[in-house]
């Protein structure tokens, strides 16, 4: 978020997430004060546009939909629910959809919009161990489905693979023509799981082991300029791994980026997928890049 200076958000409790929209012109924030706020960003200036209220607990994450579908924002909360907000005329925001009370039985910790090529689909990860999908249908309704199984304890994060998954067409597992539907999730069972949508629906494709404690976050790298599928994961154990999919025999190869010796909360890729940002328990954010010899090195700023 270069060019954006610190500013007073107006939240009355801890801020858990802040996300810029596709064009970098809007910022959404969410907080333990149960609200979502939307700001207009122009250079170093920001203007408060809206307070979105509807959650009954701390709001953990916000996620912008692709502008192809209008101005859409999703939020997830400790109150077991996800709210999808849509902007109408004159900056009036409305609740376009709220997930039913029985969809999740515990906190919804993470949300992620699918690549726009797949349609308007939101994946949701919950402390009840399950992952749900909320999809906008042609008739204007929203449909919810659950991935089979999930994580045996809680699910902490969810992230979509790029629709034009690199190497998908030469994978040993015959990939369907057209956009690829794949997800990665992380859980309190110390696992990173890869999911794929095929002829029989969603299936748990691979469970990646290596973490020795809760996996706090997992992020699938954008495929711009990357010849392979790549996932980053961050753990309560202090370790950050980068996983690369092997095309020949299938499976994933694990590389340790760093052992931070403190819990690591979040990992986030640059838009080209070449730089990894890591947020750790010491309130530090570091940037990492893979060197020519395949080792991950910190970029000093």
From TrEMBL:
The keyword Protein transport applies. SMART domains: WD40. GO terms for biological process: COPII-coated vesicle budding; mRNA transport; protein import into nucleus. Its main location: membrane. It is a peripheral membrane protein. Transmembrane segments: none annotated. GO terms for cellular component: COPII vesicle coat; endoplasmic reticulum membrane; nuclear pore outer ring. Gene3D superfamilies: YVTN repeat-like/Quinoprotein amine dehydrogenase. WD repeats lie at residues 8-41, 52-86, 208-244. The keyword Transport applies. One of its GO terms (molecular function) is structural molecule activity. It is found in: Cytoplasmic vesicle, COPII-coated vesicle membrane; Endoplasmic reticulum membrane; Nucleus, Nuclear pore complex. Keywords: Cytoplasmic vesicle, Endoplasmic reticulum, ER-Golgi transport, Membrane, mRNA transport, Nuclear pore complex, Nucleus, Protein transport, Repeat, Translocation, Transport, WD repeat. InterPro entries: Sec13/Seh1_fam, WD40/YVTN_repeat-like_dom_sf, WD40_repeat_dom_sf, WD40_rpt. Belongs to the WD repeat SEC13 family. PANTHER family: NUCLEAR PORE COMPLEX PROTEIN SEC13 / SEH1 FAMILY MEMBER, PROTEIN SEC13 HOMOLOG. Component of the coat protein complex II (COPII) which promotes the formation of transport vesicles from the endoplasmic reticulum (ER). The coat has two main functions, the physical deformation of the endoplasmic reticulum membrane into vesicles and the selection of cargo molecules. It also functions as a component of the nuclear pore complex (NPC). NPC components, collectively referred to as nucleoporins (NUPs), can play the role of both NPC structural components and of docking or interaction partners for transiently associated nuclear transport factors. This is Uncharacterized protein.
């Amino acid at each position: 978020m270069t060019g954006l200076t610190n500013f007073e958000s107006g939240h009355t409790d801890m801020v858990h997430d802040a996300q810029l929209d596709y064009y970098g012109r809007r910022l959404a924030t969410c907080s333990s004060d149960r609200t979502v706020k939307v700001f207009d960003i122009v250079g170093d200036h920001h203007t408060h546009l809206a307070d979105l209220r509807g959650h009954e607990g701390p709001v953990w994450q916000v996620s912008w939909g692709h502008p192809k579908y209008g101005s859409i924002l999703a939020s997830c909360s400790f109150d077991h629910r996800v709210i999808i907000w849509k902007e109408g005329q004159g900056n009036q925001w409305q609740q376009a959809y709220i997930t039913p009370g029985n969809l999740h039985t515990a906190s919804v910790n993470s949300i992620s919009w699918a690549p726009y090529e797949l349609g308007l689909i939101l994946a949701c990860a919950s402390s009840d161990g399950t992952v749900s999908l909320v999809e906008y249908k042609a008739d204007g309704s929203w449909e919810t489905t659950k991935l089979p199984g999930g994580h045996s304890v809680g699910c902490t994060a969810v992230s979509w693979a790029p629709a034009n998954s690199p190497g998908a067409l030469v994978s040993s597992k015959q990939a369907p023509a057209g956009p690829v539907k794949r997800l990665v999730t992380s859980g309190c069972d110390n696992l990173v799981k890869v999911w794929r949508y095929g002829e029989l629906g969603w299936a748990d494709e691979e469970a990646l082991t290596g973490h020795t404690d809760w996996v706090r976050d997992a992020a699938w790298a954008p495929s711009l300029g990357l010849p392979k599928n790549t996932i980053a994961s961050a753990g309560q154990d202090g370790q950050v791994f980068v996983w690369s999919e092997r095309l020949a025999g299938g499976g994933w190869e694990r590389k340790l980026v760093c052992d931070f010796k403190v819990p690591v909360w979040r990992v986030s890729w640059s838009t080209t997928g070449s730089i990894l940002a890591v947020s750790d328990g010491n309130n530090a954010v570091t940037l990492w890049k893979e060197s020519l010899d395949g080792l991950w090195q910190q970029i000093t700023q």
